[in-house]
């Protein structure tokens, strides 16, 4: 998969999802450079610098931001509603949904928003903040290979429901037909589904998200990977540890002969096309992969 293809689809991802939310919440259409004439043109730079500082301190936060944006955009469009905390009036917002297991990176969004508020109060929506942050994390993790202009000017959503998240987000046990129809409902082609799934070259997952794979037949998953890597990492008890999504990032000692399949990060960029190579070798975590 060429990086340029990934870029195009990420742009489409945000544009399609942004269009959905704008129809629901605002008359305007998001535009590239929306904040250029606000806050001395410093908005996107503040986001970029804060994301860079956060990833310099903990690079795993990059994957968190990419997934956060996906999970925001797939539920009522890119309206920031995934960021809302439970309240007495709304005890079950999106982030409490089981489909949002492991969602993290909220602290990075809070840090960006604090910096934005200090430089230009009440100017930048949380929805735009998250969309910019995911782009900047993608650029950081791909060493500049993935970069795209983000249309902005979104309003923040005020509705956030766990039930909406459950019914819109894809599940890790979905088969290909269900995934295709889930993505088609958001305007994506099967090819775009495949391209976007390449994001699983980064990040991590809870064992509960792929426990079904520990008993999957050998034709569906490399049996050494299943029995000697994943099963050992996950254990049989009630604990639900996390495992790296990409075999490249897993403990090399445990991999045994599988190290011959490991695709080194290209030029240090972890957001690359290794997911597809892993996939062809039955070395990915989820049934949906
Ligand atoms: C095709 C359907 C998809 C399914 C079923 C799916 C499912 C999952 C699951 C179950 C996890 C692990 C959650 C956990 O156990 O903590 C995960 C992680 C992740 N997903 Fe997906 N995903 C899909 C598509 C995508 C897309 C389109 C993106 C972004 C463009 C994405 C980005 C990520 C990232 C970056 C992580 C790691 C997050 C972290 O490290 O915190 N996924 N995904």
Automatic annotation (TrEMBL):
One of its GO terms (molecular function) is lactoperoxidase activity. GO terms for cellular component: extracellular region. Its EC number is 1.11.1.7. Disulfide bonds join 39-120, 73-78. Its cofactor is Ca(2+); heme b. Ca(2+) 2 binds at residue 272. Its main location: secreted. One of its GO terms (biological process) is response to oxidative stress. Residues 1-19 form the signal peptide. Heme b binds at residue 200. InterPro entries: Haem_peroxidase, Haem_peroxidase_sf, Peroxidase_pln, Peroxidases_AS, Peroxidases_heam-ligand_BS, Secretory_peroxidase. The record marks 67 as: Transition state stabilizer. It is found in: Secreted. The active site is at 71 (proton acceptor). Substrate binds at residue 170. It catalyses: 2 a phenolic donor + H2O2 = 2 a phenolic radical donor + 2 H2O. The keyword Heme applies. Keywords: Calcium, Disulfide bond, Glycoprotein, Heme, Hydrogen peroxide, Iron, Metal-binding, Oxidoreductase, Peroxidase, Secreted, Signal. PANTHER family: PEROXIDASE 25-RELATED (PTHR31235). Removal of H(2)O(2), oxidation of toxic reductants, biosynthesis and degradation of lignin, suberization, auxin catabolism, response to environmental stresses such as wounding, pathogen attack and oxidative stress. These functions might be dependent on each isozyme/isoform in each plant tissue. Belongs to the peroxidase family. Classical plant (class III) peroxidase subfamily. This is Peroxidase.
